[in-house]
């Protein structure tokens, strides 16, 4: 089977820099589309659906990169977005990562890092995307850091309502879901997420299994994959992820065959 040509969109108001980078990528056999700002990028995203990766400047005069990314997610739900910045804009960087951006590159762009990111994204495209839903910010930060280092694309949500909004904009292969959440609880969140996408693999996480066994049992009967107790054993966790990814690959091969 012939490998699909990678398609990258560069979004930056510095068009000369984008054109220079585009020439380098094209020499590597990569298809490139260039947008001079957020609005142009959104127009392209409405018309072109085969974009695999977007490198997006954060500071742009029309719409900033984070806002462009938030609007783009519903248009290109399976596209990986990497934010690029020359400025110390920590609040925007953290917002982008919370919304599911793959990562951050700093200007001037290091080409070794750029191509390393591209290769990691090629790898994670096979692995899938992960959503972590937990009101404990430390757990979200720890999980997402480890998973990103392993090449996965990760988004986090601190409430069920936030998770539902993210799931409407992006397709997730695996969702880690805490049972005890502020507002809509884990069970209600799970049922709402299942209504949006019946195909994702759910891993329920709880420190209170003894208090809500009926709810957890209902979720397992409604296609949740498994339930893990806090504190989570990472060896067990990654064993489960590997199993889920292997199942996904097998299903993909079967469909392509």
Structure description:
With 257 residues, the chain is an alpha/beta fold. The chain has 2 domains: 7-125, Response regulator (Rossmann fold), CATH 3.40.50.2300; 128-256, 3-Layer(aba) Sandwich (Rossmann fold), CATH 3.40.50.2300. Helix content is 48%, strand content 19%. The chain has 10 helices and 10 strands. The strands form 2 sheets. A 5-stranded parallel beta sheet has the order 2-1-3-4-5, sandwiched between helices. Strands 7-6-8-9-10 form a 5-stranded parallel beta sheet, with helices on both faces. Helix 2 runs parallel beside helix 3 and helix 7 (160-169) packs parallel to helix 8 (186-196). The longest helix has 23 residues, at 234-256. Residues 252-257 have low confidence and may be disordered.
Whole-number total of structural domains: 2
Q: Please tell me the CATH architecture of the largest domain by its name.
A: 3-Layer(aba) Sandwich
Averaged pLDDT:
86
Name the assembly state.
single chain
Task: Count the DSSP helices.
Answer: 10
Strand content: 15-25%
How many individual β-strands?
10
The share of residues in helices is: 40-55%
CATH fold descriptor of the largest domain: Rossmann fold
Largest sheet: 5 strands, parallel
What would CATH call the homologous superfamily of the largest domain? Answer: Response regulator
């Amino acid at each position: 089977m012939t490998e699909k040509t990678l398609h990258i969109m560069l979004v930056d108001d510095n068009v000369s820099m984008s054109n220079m980078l585009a020439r380098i990528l094209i020499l590597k056999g990569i298809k490139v589309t260039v947008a001079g700002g957020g609005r142009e990028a959104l127009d392209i995203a409405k018309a072109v659906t085969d974009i695999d990766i977007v490198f997006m400047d954060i500071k742009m005069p029309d719409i900033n990169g984070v806002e462009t990314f938030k609007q783009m997610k519903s248009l290109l739900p399976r596209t990986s977005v990497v934010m690029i910045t020359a400025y110390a804009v920590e609040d925007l960087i953290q917002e982008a990562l919370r919304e599911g951006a793959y990562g951050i590159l700093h200007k001037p762009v290091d080409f070794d890092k750029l191509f390393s990111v591209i290769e990691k994204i090629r790898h994670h495209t096979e692995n899938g995307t992960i959503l972590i839903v937990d009101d404990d910010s430390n757990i979200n930060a720890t999980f997402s850091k480890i998973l990103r280092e392993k090449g996965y694309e990760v988004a986090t949500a601190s409430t069920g309502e936030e998770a539902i909004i993210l799931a409407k904009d992006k397709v997730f292969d695996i969702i880690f879901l805490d049972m005890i959440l502020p507002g809509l609880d884990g069970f209600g969140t799970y049922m709402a997420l299942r209504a949006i996408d019946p195909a994702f693999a759910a891993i329920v996480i709880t420190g209170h299994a003894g208090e809500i066994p009926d709810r957890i049992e209902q979720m397992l009967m409604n296609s949740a994959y498994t339930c893990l107790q806090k504190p989570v054993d990472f060896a067990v966790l990654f064993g489960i992820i590997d199993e889920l990814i292997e199942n996904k690959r097998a299903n993909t091969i079967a469909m392509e065959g």
